[in-house]
Write a structure and sequence with these properties.
The complex is a heterodimer of chains A (229) and B (492). Chain A is 14% helix and 20% strand. The relative contact order of chain A is 0.20. Chain B has 492 residues and is α/β, with parallel strands linked by helices. Chain B has three domains: 126 residues, 3-Layer(aba) Sandwich (Dimethylsulfoxide Reductase, domain 2); 156 residues, Rossmann fold (3-Layer(aba) Sandwich), CATH 3.40.50.740; 113 residues, Beta Barrel (Barwin-like endoglucanases). Chain B has 17 helices and 18 strands. In chain B, strand 2, helix 7 and strand 3 form a beta-alpha-beta unit. Classes of the chains: A alpha+beta (229), B alpha/beta (492). At the A-B interface, loops of A face helix 1, helix 5 and helix 6 of B.
Chain lengths: 229, 492
Amino acid sequence: MIEAGLEFFVDPSRCIGCQACYHACAECETHRGVSMIHLEYTDRAASPQTVPVVCMHCEDPACAEVCPADAIKKTADGVVQTALPSHCIGCTNCVLACPFGVPHYLPQLDLMMKCDMCYDRTSAGKRPMCVTVCPSGALAYGTRAEIETLRRERPINTFVFGPQVVQTKVQMLVPVGVEALEVDITAFMTSGQEAVTPPMPLSGAPTERKGSERVRGTGLEGQFPHLVG
Amino acid sequence: MTPIARTADLLLPVRPGRDSALMNGLLHVCIARGWIDHTFIAQHTQGFEKVQETVAHYTPERVAALTGVPAAAIVQAAEWWGTAPTAMLLHARGIEHHTQGTENCLTCINLVLATGKMGKPGCGYSTITGQGNGQGGREHGQRCNQLPSGRDIDNPEHRRIVAERWGVAEDELPGVGYTATEMREAIHRGEIRGLLCICFNPLVSLPDAEYTRAALERLEFFCVIDFFMSETARYADVILPGSLQEEDEGTVTTAEGRVIRIRQAVQPPGKARPDWQIVCDLARRLAPWKHFPYACVEDIFRELRRVSRGGLCDYYGITYEKIDAQHGVFWPCPDPTHPGTPRLFEGGTFYHADGKAQFHAVEYRPPAEDVDAEYPVLLTTGRVVSQYLSGTQTRRIGPLVRQYPEPLLEIHPDLAATLGVQTGDLVRVVSRRGAMTLPCQVVRTIRPDTVFIPYHWPDERSANLLTIRALDPISKIPEFKVCAVRLEKVVA
């Protein structure tokens, strides 16, 4: 069992795209050579934003609900486990159903595998492997009190996909007042000749600024249709 | 735009080579709006009047024309800096790899001093080094014009202290030598005929790679100590297999001046040996045994403590035990009971004889090679997250290679459109030094007048085939960040 009070937090605004999490995951002996983490640029032409995606561990996991073989179990501590090899029939229903695109289907094994929040480690009181190697704190694991002391961003775990609302065990750290982000460097510059226009703030448009409070986008736009606090 | 810049509230995408103009502009606005700390300037600094006079000409409009950053953004940045109760100014190689690198740093320091943001909590100025122990190496006397602890090699008093502690005659100490970039010139002149390189891959890391190649070919004797066979090592007469950091032990000093320990994780393979043992063995053949009596790494550290005592970077009170107990110790740490100094210049006391910080008035001057009709595009070079320096280590690690297998030309869609290229198309980049062909990556995260190439690769994939040899006159750092190129679409 994972100790109550310990939570997984993902903060894409801190991701530098180094892929340390991706490779650390791939080195695990339970799925050697295959990383359970997805790490992609959201849109490299527009931004260097990258986003690490771990299993969000939904309260009502779509992957488990659509599994005809009942191969995906959720433990009492809320962790959605990877498919049981003895049960999984390789139908890929879960791959198609997951709103976050998390499960991997491995054709060579005819098996689905996915992030189980390093259950072998977290159930023994250790942090997930990806968290231990993340150099910038984009992946974090600890108590709510710890994260609130260290971060301006606040955790949310409600995601809206069209008509469907998904609650997750994993928390996404987002700035207050997230808005759409479109990064275009020409908005910040001038050739020196033309009329000077006020610069558009880089992200999230801080129209009002109070003390150290910043408002900015997460770069999640396009990755998730809506983010609701 | 880097991943760090992506998280900024305000980005000032300065045209490469115009940093000192930008910083002068910020100070201009701070002075004009009264966002400066007159008390701090009066009590703790010298030379502000001259700087004030100089920056008076750097109006936001003029700076906007020079730098390509909108005047309103300059004013906004100055306001946020000037009115913030605390602020830190940090930079890395971006403003240093210029023929005005030193001047760029001085304009940053001027801004920090004029606003009194130094020597108190949440304030300060820091330059982040490009390598793990870039800070420590300099403090230990690796620079060709310094002795340990930041002492000057041509200062008679500093020479006397170090000679005495080393137990040598003062005239046995060498004078100011050549920097790495100047050594290359000296090889071409025939002045340097033999060279020993330790973990240095100039064929990849120095500008104008063909000039480096010619220099290496001229050497009569060339010895390399390195952990892998680098591109530079191909030119060596003798290669001595050294060690990785993971195979050695000792201390490194972080950019914040904190001394931390590193421990041996694995033994060097085969006949490879820790670098310090190789250097000591060489020295014992060349010099009297008494000067190299070290039995272990900690012996060398004890000598550093003794020799650095009383210097700027005073390690005397730092021991391995204290480093372990305190999770690192900040210099200066003048005696064993001293806890170390996490913040420099507290209370506004500086290193100059009068205890005051010095302002330096800097006039902007253009880069060594600016754009013209023949070479109309600015090239700036730098790094990607998955590769480290000249890639001697990281180009051998499969997952890192796959993450960013080859250099890409970052180019804005507007500039790409004039060439008629899209992401993945090959572009030939030509400078006055050389040419290279590489795929382009069309992104809106770079200025349309500038292209970017990361430098980690050798041979025909080396961005340093294009870069210019021009040096900063004081620091002798090359201008990696600015040169002029033209672009040609490669027709398959």
